[in-house]
Amino acid sequence: MKEAEPKFELRSGETWRDPFPMYAALRDRDPVHYESGGDYYVLTRFEDVWEAVSDSETFSSAQGLTVRYGEMEQIGMGDAVPMVFLDPPAHTEFRALVTKDLTPRRVATIEPALRAFIVERIEKVREMGSADIVAELFKPLPSFVVAHYLGVPEEERTLFDRWTEAIVQAAAAGGVDEAGEALNELLTYFAGLIERRRKDPGDDIVSALVQLGEEKVSALRILGFAFTMVTGGNDTITGMLSGSACLLSEHRDQRAKLLADRSAIVGAVEELLRLTSPVQNLTRTATRDVEMRGVTIPEGRRVLLGYGSANRDEREFGPTAADFDVERKISKILSFGYGTHYCVGAAAARLQSRIVVEELLERCPNFEVDVAAGVYARGNYVRRHVSLPFVAS
Q: Would you say 307 and 90 are in contact if contact means Cβ atoms under 8 Å apart?
């Protein structure tokens, strides 16, 4: 009997629980897959995705990052173009202005405050005995970090989660009006914050950009950057942390290795990032006809880059690619992309992950999460939990 052709299906909510057999089938039998229903192509092998993210001239971000055509017009942000939608040279010039505050060395300066926040939250959960770890730690933590870098006062930080949740859910459901309302609230807030920082600058990225002057960095460009940080730095970290907690619960032998040798946690974070791949997919647009593995992708077509699939590709990571191995030697992963659009928050993401793992193992060495009871969020591009039962022990 002839084997059925593999299919690709955008995931959301419960269907995020196990997309990996679908990825494996596509990698093996149709690595440059055409999805006729949405008129886009899907890349699932590590080598192909790496090639695409390395070539922003051919695979452009300027038309949006989802499979929807006309996405930029639907978003309706006008001239406040988010950094992730810029191509070189505009992207390169602006990136140079913000990355100096997000280097590993600069990011490390937040570690004491970050660790104190994490410890306080874990201790609260320990007192409770059991809790939803997403609500208590994995969701508030990235909001704390993003707010710190953008200079948002503490009493206003809960706005981040509300905006992010609204934008992600609206995008998943195709509700442009709902997304537009959340975007308007976000942009209005940061327009006000920019004006406040002109008069009263702080030690944050928004203040630093404002002080460069309108001619060098427009207020609209700062608004676009704030949007990128708020929407890109919240749910992705939640996905990384919740996915990591699941892996550490499901693989007690690997947890035991980390308990025996805490120095191995740094390397284990890379393995956790590889397997969780919070951003499972993002899209580029082909700027010319391009051939990959005998398939011609026409100019103007969307190309979905399967980061989650690529990070489990046996051709790159060997026959045990699907396994969690804290001792795995990893030279490169696609969890943060690569090249021009390599995630500016990568160092902050790694720091959050490392400290959470360190403190969970120190304070709750026998913790358990109920993997089967975890609830996945709606949304086609970020795989994350909205709730995950946790028992501290």
A: no
pTM to 2 decimals? 0.91
Q: CA distances (Å), 18 to each of 13, 21, 87, 114, 241, in order?
A: 11, 7, 33, 32, 17
Report how far apart the first and last C-alpha atoms of the chain are (Å, whole number). Answer: 51
How far is 230 from 247, CA to CA, in rounded Å?
26
Following DSSP, what letter does each residue of 179-193 receive, concatenated? Answer: HHHHHHHHHHHHHHH
Tokens matching residue 53: 């993210």
Helices 235-250, 265-276: inter-axial angle, 10-degree rounding? 110
Contacts of 161 (CB under 8 A, 6+ apart): 139, 140, 143, 234
Please tell me the predicted confidence (pLDDT) of residue 31.
Answer: 98
82 contacts: CB under 8 Å, gap ≥ 6: 224, 225, 227, 228
Distance CA 60, CA 282 (A): 11
Q: Which of 23-32, 61-70, 373-382 has the highest mean pLDDT?
A: 23-32
Q: Which residues make beta-bridge pairs with 59?
A: 286
Does the structure show a pLDDT above 90 at 164?
no
Residue 109's nearest CA partner among 2, 242, 204, 213 is: 204
pLDDT value of position 175: 47
What whole-number percentage of the chain has pLDDT above 90? 59
For 293-318, give the secondary structure using H, E and C: CCEEECCCCEEEEEHHHHCCCHHHHC
The SS3 assignment for 41 reads strand
The Cβ of residue 23 has, within 10 Å, a number of other Cβ atoms equal to 23
Decide: helix, strand or coil at residue 386.
strand
User: Quick one: CA torsion of 168, 171, 175, 180, rounded to 10 degrees?
Assistant: 70
Torsion of CA 340, 344, 349, 350, to 10 degrees: 60
Residue listed under structure tokens 């602006």: 94
- Rounded to whole angstroms, the Cα distance separating 337 from 236 reads 13
Residue 334's φ and ψ, nearest 5 degrees, are -115, 15
